[in-house]
Amino acid sequence: YPQRHSLETQLSKLNLTEIEAVLGSYTKVLFVRDPFQRLISTFMQSMGSSPSFSSFVQDVLDSGEHSAHVAWKPLVSLCQPCLVQYDYVVMFGFLKQELGHLLSRAGLDAQSLLPEFTDTQVQWTYSWLSEQMLSELSLQQKRQLSHFYRWDLAAFPFSNSFLSD
């Protein structure tokens, strides 16, 4: 389907046969991150738009799953992992190992192409930040967030997520 296949083509504009052909011609990689860490990251990047993490979370919850901003929308609704057969799922926190593996599988020199990662320090920082931010939330907000991200938590192994409790 080269005539309809361009950088601007969105899958939603193709029929099912065309979608299968396009997706079948690519190596599909999905990068996933703990939903609570995504929320923290979005809040930190948009400091000033909400006075506190708790009010930010309430805004997220009030937006609902279907009209949620892409920055905090559940991954399952964004990436359709039940419909798209991804070749690789790369977890945030394991980028160095997983990207090295991907580059090697593609026949590329992982040593010369990979930047220096600090996964361990980032994981520790997000663990500490998660504890601090979680303490700002009410029990009801924690439950609502767990429900909001229930499909992400079921689809991906976020075993250390503060929302899995």
In words, what does this structure look like?
- The chain is mainly alpha-helical and 165 residues long.
- Helix content is 50%, strand content 5%.
- The protein contains nine helices and two strands; from the N terminus they run H-E-H-H-H-E-H-H-H-H-H.
- It has helices at 16-24, 35-45, 53-63, 75-79, 95-105, 110-113, 119-134, 139-148, 150-155, and strands at residues 29-32, 88-91.
- The protein has a two-stranded parallel sheet with strand order 1-2.
- The longest helix has 16 residues, at 119-134.
- The protein is globular.
- Keywords: Carbohydrate metabolism, Glycoprotein, Golgi apparatus, Membrane, Signal-anchor, Transferase, Transmembrane, Transmembrane helix.
- This is Carbohydrate sulfotransferase.
- InterPro entries: Carb_sulfotrans_8-10, Sulfotransferase.
Summarize the structure.
Its EC number is 2.8.2.-. The protein has helices at 16-24, 35-45, 53-63, 75-79, 95-105, 110-113, 119-134, 139-148, 150-155; strands at residues 29-32, 88-91.
Features:
2 strands; globular; two-stranded parallel sheet; mainly alpha
Whole-number tally of structural domains: 1
Number of discrete helical segments: 9
**Helix/strand order, N-terminal first:** HEHHHEHHHHH
Strand percentage, roughly? under 5%
Low-confidence stretches: none
Percentage of residues in helical conformation: 40-55%
**Which of globular, elongated, flat, extended, rod-shaped describes the shape?**
globular
Distance between the termini: 46 Å
Could you give a short account of the major beta sheet?
A: 2 strands, parallel
Number of strands: 2
Give the mean pLDDT. 82
